[in-house]
Amino acid sequence: MSNNYEQIKKRRTFAIISHPDAGKTTLTEKFLLYGGAINQAGSVKGKATSKHAVSDWMEIEKQRGISVTSSVLQFNYDDCCINILDTPGHQDFSEDTYRTLMAADSAVMVIDASKGVEAQTRKLFKVCVLRNIPIFTFINKMDRDANDPFDLLDEIEKELGIKTCPINWPIGSGKEFKGVYDRNTNHITTFKAISTGGSKEAASTEVDLKDDSLKAMLGESFHEKLLEDIELLDGASAEFDMEEVSKGKLSPVFFGSALTNFGVENFLQHFLTMTTSPLPRNSSVGKIDPFDEDFSAFVFKIQANMNKAHRDRIAFMRICSGKFEAGMEVLHVQGGKKMKLSQPQQLMAQERKIIDEAYAGDIIGVFDPGIFSIGDTITNSNKKFLFEGIPTFAPEHFARVRQIDTMKRKQFMKGITQIAQEGAIQIFQEFNSGMEEIIVGAVGVLQFDVLKYRLENEYGCDIRMESLPYEHIRWIENENYDMNDLKTISDLKKIKDMKGNPLLLFANVWSIKTLLDRNEGLKLSEFGKNM
Ligand code: G4P
């Protein structure tokens, strides 16, 4: 259908990733300003306004100054319809970031020029590389004193193991930030900070590299340094290769300043030419083409209680093919049931709005009565298929959780189960006892804080948490294995998952080896049977 074709062709769906405070929110806000989706800076985070903010719905986020949830924003720019998937800015939530990346076709990595790849972000950015999607780097805050740009590129290459190709190049930084040089056009866009009614902006002019006035404009030493840098870059940096970019092996790098809106539009324009419309997705029957007539989507995120006023639960799905129309009947493949998706919605800046239609590449949130799981496939196609699953990360931190008020057993179990279904934590039980105690596994320790906070605030259950000294989890792969046969060792804990499958927790990798040596034929796996 030609109408679908046009709509899908113009979709671009990307995730935005950064260390807290690197400027993700500011950059997103500038994008939205270009798209006309908002008309006031500060609307995204709601810092400048008292309105409820989209990417800041949980008190804990404010307390910690990090974003632990992700949201989706859509805007139009230059004949493209762009979906931005926000991600949590802390590596303790890197599994959540990975799931969000599954729904994206490319990623934008925001780096603070004075900090480079920060310890907390390493894991987060590495997750990005795992997905093999195009990664674009925006090195932000050039209006502040920055690290040497060559060192920054070096760091990205070493830390993340991908090559970099600067598209533009900074001239100075901080108070001496003169502008950027565009390596394609040989033009220099000069930077001059101006203050307009409290907001910071940059004024810029374009000059050709060969322009006689350039030396006077930049000053002799900056001019000389620029010419040196250009020579060095042409000799040393990786050549631009679109093929490598599309495989996520080469990251185009841009320097700019989101706050002063310098280099943002230029970045957006390049980004749109270097990215493609939605790509085919793997499924159990081969690749599903986004331009297929049939609608299909998969769930990549479930989030409960986004709005305290009504305790809702939203399943976010990425549309992989065709067109979604409100009221259409779809098959929830895993549940084996036909259904209508209720209250389909999208986020536009700070508004949630009910939608009538959406296309491949878009993300929609639907009301979830508790039936969806992460990775589920939804389609109206006659061929029954499943999209490729979303891997679960093995938890590395474990804690025993007890509710303080035993009368609140029901709320406690409901809360902890729902939070586990969202994929924020994994829950287990002691091997030889009932459900009195729950053992929680998490990829990052901050997830425990979120769990405690949410159980108290959303489910009214105070809990006591005791951390356990284990770091590795293994499922037993042998069929019908009798745990009593296990020749055990110290530093080992026997547990089971909520389906009763036996599992082992280890304090270190050596104890895993010792156990395997002692128990011939024992097969262990890092991943659960249902994953
Ligand atoms: P995040 O979402 O990645 O956590 O970062 P966010 O955009 O909230 O930016 C973090 C801080 O860095 C903010 O300052 C923001 O104004 C500032 N910032 C972002 N981009 C730039 C830039 O290009 N140059 C400079 N100099 N600063 C930048 P804040 O003081 O924490 O908050 P606010 O009160 O100014 O909003």
List the helices and strands and how they pair.
Elements: H1 2-9, E1 11-18, H2 24-35, H3 59-64, E2 72-77, E3 80-86, H4 94-102, E4 106-112, H5 119-130, E5 135-140, H6 149-160, E6 163-166, E7 168-171, E8 179-182, E9 187-190, E10 192-196, E11 199-203, E12 206-208, H7 214-218, H8 220-236, H9 242-246, E13 250-255, H10 264-274, E14 281-283, E15 286-288, E16 296-304, E17 313-321, E18 323-325, E19 329-332, E20 337-340, E21 345-348, E22 351-354, E23 357-359, E24 363-367, E25 377-379, E26 397-403, H11 409-421, E27 426-430, E28 438-442, H12 446-459, E29 463-468, E30 472-476, E31 492-497, E32 502-506, H13 509-518, E33 524-525
Parallel strand pairs: 1-3, 1-4, 4-5, 5-13, 6-13
Antiparallel strand pairs: 2-3, 7-8, 8-9, 9-12, 10-11, 14-15, 16-17, 16-25, 17-24, 18-23, 19-20, 19-25, 21-22, 26-28, 26-29, 27-28, 27-31, 30-32, 30-33, 31-32
Helix pairs in contact: 4-5, 11-12
The site of guanosine-5',3'-tetraphosphate has 17 residues, from helix 2.
Walk me through what this model shows.
One of its GO terms (molecular function) is GTP binding. Keywords: Cytoplasm, GTP-binding, Nucleotide-binding, Protein biosynthesis. This is Peptide chain release factor 3. It holds the Pfam family EF-G_D2. Belongs to the TRAFAC class translation factor GTPase superfamily. Classic translation factor GTPase family. PrfC subfamily. By secondary structure, the protein is of the alpha+beta class. The chain has 3 domains: about 15-65 and about 105-275, P-loop containing nucleotide triphosphate hydrolases (Rossmann fold), CATH 3.40.50; about 280-380, 3-Layer(aba) Sandwich (Rossmann fold); about 395-525, Alpha-Beta Plaits (2-Layer Sandwich), CATH 3.30.70. The protein has an 8-stranded antiparallel sheet with strand order 29-26-28-27-31-32-30-33. It has a 7-stranded mixed sheet with strand order 2-3-1-4-5-13-6, sandwiched between helices. Strands 20-19-25-16-17-24 form a 6-stranded antiparallel sheet. The protein is globular. The chain starts with a helix and ends in a 6-residue tail after the last strand.
